[in-house]
Design goal:
By secondary structure, this protein is of the alpha/beta class. The strands form four sheets. Strands 1, 2, 10, 17, 18, 19, 20, 21 and 22 form a nine-stranded mixed beta sheet that branches. Helix 2 crosses helix 7, helix 9 crosses helix 10 and helix 10 packs parallel to helix 11. The chain is globular. 53% of the residues are buried. InterPro entries: Amidohydro_3, Metal-dep_hydrolase_composite, Metal_Hydrolase, YtcJ-like.
Length: 539
């Protein structure tokens, strides 16, 4: 079983969920220095003359706050904090700028994102020849026989045609290549990689996966979901140093976007079931063990999300259930009994209904407790399903920026009626009293909370003039809450982070907006500075 991690200040299909407060190397040195106990009564830092959004409905705004030893000492009007100003207290005049709590990205693959930043970048590429050019360039800079790795391609950007090994074989005669699709549920291997892995026209589809074939039965180079393991098992394991560098690279980037905490759903403790009982949840001031993650289905773009009705563009295909229900049920029962939070990936409407049914059965069998079961993505819901989230107390962990890519795709793959009635139902979920937590799924899409918030508010995909399903738009307040305090509740960290209140960690973001009205009306807003534990981590 693989434990999940939250980063901040099982069986093989279960992945880790960790909670990490983010940092870079410069911040780390400042934070180490801050561990020296303070001998003064007053604040280390007073932040004043701003518009501070607290994410607390009982006290939504303040203009100043005092910070000591990484936590908020007091928040309110500047006049109420002046008694905390003493020898050594620094003051930061915001000059009217907007401040929000540090953003929590509720769903990332942090190390994968950091690794991808140093690999072949094909995200956003809209031409076949550009894919080939970038792979060729990588080969010229690589050793003969070494793996060429990358990802982020989206066939919908060049008209929908799926790539094939033959596209890149000519420029990669001596190097195996593996390029993952943007959603992580499909990958392209060249012929060298297929030969190395022994994938031929005789290779059978594994359970929960598909090897794409030509009309003649030959593998095209595309592998979907569980079939990707046929290639992945041959790729050399990333070293500890490479993983460390990737984490620092990704953390530094996330801080530029105002992200101070991530819920990482990568794989950290495969095969280990007793980590929490041995080490406890808090591995350090930075890492908190959250729970376990599993998969119920694949993705819409790969035609592997599981639906009650067949795909509009593939009438014999209902998608993939990537894990046997009995196995998933037994693992969820065991994880829940161990006190772990369970999060399960479900994109199609049938997958979500199956998981909601299973969660209900597990709760009845194991008894009442505050478990906060999560469904990751919840992108397409059957009629009435949104209400079940609130009724069962399920966390809906959603990624608004996915709809920017999926709007046209959903209409093509599901038909107009199904796509319009059941896709990205943010407002319906919130109205059902579901706990809505926003994230990015980085590196599927970049971690960018300010953009995600605008997407949730506007729902206007690229090339569109109007909102897609406008009744499902969120208000600014709802979207901010979902990226801060609700995201904290979704990972059991609401007492430490997610809002700017006395006693909590001083994680906050200074925005470029000079007033709340400017921010609320959709003006161009960016991150001026990010603070973690009261210390400036960016820039």
């Amino acid at each position: 079983m693989n434990l999940s991690i939250v980063i901040s200040a099982s069986i093989a299909i279960f992945l880790s969920v960790f909670f990490f407060p983010l940092f870079n190397s410069t911040y780390w040195l400042k934070w180490r220095a801050s561990l020296i106990p303070s001998t003064k009564f007053g604040a280390d830092l007073i932040v004043k003359n701003g518009v501070i959004f607290t994410s607390d409905p009982s006290f939504p705004f303040a203009n100043s706050m005092a910070i000591r030893d990484g936590r908020i000492l007091r928040i309110g009007n500047y006049s109420s904090l002046q008694d905390l100003s003493g020898y050594g207290t620094k003051e930061l005049n915001l000059e009217g700028k907007v401040v929000v709590p540090g953003f929590i990205d509720s769903h990332v693959h942090l190390i994968s994102a950091g690794l991808q930043m140093a690999r072949v970048q094909v995200e956003g590429v809209n031409r076949k020849d550009e894919i080939v050019r970038r792979v060729k360039e990588a080969v010229l800079n690589a050793k003969r026989g070494s793996w060429i790795l990358g990802g982020g391609w989206n066939n919908d950007l060049w008209g929908g045609e799926l790539p094939m090994a033959s596209w890149i074989d000519e420029v990669t005669p001596d190097n195996p290549v593996w390029l993952t699709r943007m959603d992580g549920h499909m990958g392209l291997a060249n012929s060298v990689a297929l030969k190395l892995a022994g994938v031929t026209n005789l290779t059978k589809d594994p359970n929960g996966g598909t090897i794409m074939q030509t009309a003649d039965g030959e593998p095209t180079g595309l592998l979907i979901d569980a079939a990707m393991e046929l290639i992945l098992s041959w790729i050399p394991e990333v070293s500890v140093d490479e993983r460390r560098e990737a984490m620092l690279r990704a953390s530094s980037f996330a801080l530029t976007r105002g992200v101070t905490t991530v819920v990482d759903v990568g794989r950290y403790f495969p095969g280990s079931s007793g980590v929490i009982h041995r080490a406890g949840r808090a591995l350090s001031n930075w890492i908190y063990l959250g729970g376990v993650k599993a998969f119920a289905d694949g993705s819409l773009g790969s035609n592997s999300a599981l639906f009650h009705e067949p795909y509009f563009d593939d009438p014999h295909n209902y998608g993939l259930q990537v894990v046997e229900f009995e196995s998933l049920f037994n693992m969820t029962i065991a994880s829940d009994l161990s006190g772990l939070q369970v999060a399960i990936h479900a994109i199609g409407d049938k997958a979500t209904d199956l998981i909601l049914d299973m969660y209900e059965s597990v709760a009845l069998k194991n008894g009442k407790r505050d478990r906060r079961f999560r469904i990751e993505h919840a992108q397409h819901l059957a009629p009435g399903t949104a209400d079940r989230f609130g009724q069962q107390g399920i966390v809906a962990s959603v990624q608004p920026d996915h709809l920017l890519d999926d709007a046209d795709v959903a209409i093509r793959k599901l038909g107009v009626d199904r796509a319009q009635k059941g896709s990205y139902l943010f407002r319906s979920l919130l109205s059902s009293n579901a706990l809505l937590a926003l994230g990015s799924d980085w590196p599927v899409t970049s971690t960018y909370p300010l953009r995600a918030i605008r997407t949730a508010m506007n729902r206007i995909p690229p090339g569109w003039d109007t909102a897609w399903i406008p009744s499902e738009r969120l208000s600014l307040n709802d979207a901010l809450i979902a990226h801060t305090i609700s995201a904290a509740r979704a990972c059991f960290r609401e007492n430490e982070i997610g809002s700017l209140l006395t006693g909590k960690l001083a994680d906050f973001v200074i925005l470029s907006s000079d007033s709340w009205d400017e921010f609320a009306t959709g003006g161009s807003t960016s991150v001026n500075a990010t603070y973690v534990g009261g210390i400036q981590a960016y820039p």
